[in-house]
Write a structure and sequence with these properties.
Number of strands of chain B: 0
Distance between the termini of chain A: 58 Å
Largest interface: A-B, 35 and 30 residues
Number of domains of chain A: 1
Low-confidence stretches of chain A: none
CATH superfamily of chain A: Glutaredoxin
Helix content of chain B: over 70%
CATH class of chain A: Alpha Beta
Largest sheet of chain A: 5 strands, mixed
Largest sheet of chain B: none
Strand content of chain A: 15-25%
Mean pLDDT of chain B: 91
Strand content of chain B: under 5%
Radius of gyration of chain B: 16 Å
Radius of gyration of chain A: 17 Å
Structural class of chain B: mainly alpha
Shape of chain B: globular
Number of domains of chain B: 1
CATH architecture of chain A: 3-Layer(aba) Sandwich
Oligomer: heterodimer
Structural class of chain A: alpha+beta
Mean pLDDT of chain A: 94
Chain lengths: ~140, ~140
């Protein structure tokens, strides 16, 4: 019985790991076109409050202090935005902003939103995005 | 990059791998040798507390620095120590569940060991980060303020 239960624990953990690998970082299209309220988001960039969206698209990264995968996501998105002028990248630290987490129903970080030029949420990814998911969405919006 | 206080991200994963082995042993023992299992969970609790209080002197960290890191390439990037610290706090709270609960019901030792195993196994081998997956859920449920 000991061996059986221990093997069962191993099997459950392996299954959880494989499921995590498969589904983590998969994005999906967002219907309803909610416009992100920048005044409510209260994010800053280079010390100035952000009150305009990118001319073609905006990437919003939701992070927390305890998120080990956020720095890598931040670097990747910042690099994209650096290369493409019509793209704005902003980050909202929601460690203490549970109101935002509740409003956007965010349960994990990093969570990334792709907004169009009007600031409507078109796509979201929970977790570190799989290769090229963000790029594909940005290309659809003409931001690349 | 030499940002002070930042750590090699492979260190915590190395520690999680050892924790996963210890907690699997604790789980297997808890079904037969309750005393030994209890002791193993106490040891896990001490190790978690140690890495929260003084991560620099932790035995995992010393082994990693002395034997593992020299044979690895330099890290591509250093990471903020807060996420792994959060993971250690989660580990400690499960260990405490086993240590305190185990005095009343031996089942809780098994439960604690199973949770510690699941979390450390996913962290070490699948790169799942507890601070990323759990922090908001726990906060939104209002468990930690």
């Amino acid at each position: 019985m000991t061996t059986g239960l221990t093997l069962a624990l191993l099997a459950v953990s392996l299954l959880a790991g494989v499921t995590y690998k498969l589904f983590h970082g998969r994005g999906h299209r967002v219907l309803g076109a909610e416009v992100v309220d920048l005044a409510k988001l209260k994010v800053h960039k280079n010390g100035d409050p952000v009150n305009e969206f990118g001319s073609k698209a905006t990437l919003v990264l939701f992070s927390t202090k305890y998120c080990g995968q956020c720095p890598a996501a931040r670097r990747a998105l910042a690099k994209l935005a650096h290369r493409h002028g019509s793209l704005l990248f902003i980050e909202a630290d929601i460690t203490e902003r549970l109101d935002l987490a509740a409003h956007f129903n965010i349960t994990q970080t990093p969570t990334i939103f792709v907004l169009n030029h009007r600031g409507e949420i078109r796509y979201r990814v929970g977790g570190t995005p799989k290769t090229n998911t963000i790029e594909t969405e940005l290309a659809k919006l003409g931001a690349l | 990059m030499t940002t002070t206080g930042h750590i090699d991200p492979r260190g915590p994963r190395f520690g999680a791998a050892i924790t996963s082995v210890l907690s699997l042993i604790a789980f297997a023992l808890s079904l037969e040798e309750a005393r030994l299992a209890y002791i193993t969970v106490v040891v896990l609790g001490i190790l978690f507390a140690w890495s929260i209080i003084s991560p620099g002197t932790h035995p995992y960290s010393l082994v990693f620095k002395k034997f593992v890191r020299p044979s690895l390439k330099p890290p591509k990037e250093l990471e903020d120590p807060r996420p792994p610290r959060f993971a250690q706090q989660v580990g400690l709270s499960f260990a405490l569940l086993g240590i305190v609960g185990g005095l009343f019901s031996p089942v809780l030792v098994s439960v604690a060991a199973a949770f510690i195993f699941l979390a450390s196994f996913l962290n070490a081998y699948f790169g799942l980060c507890l601070g990323c997956q759990m922090y908001l859920v726990v906060r939104r449920l209002g468990i930690i303020r």
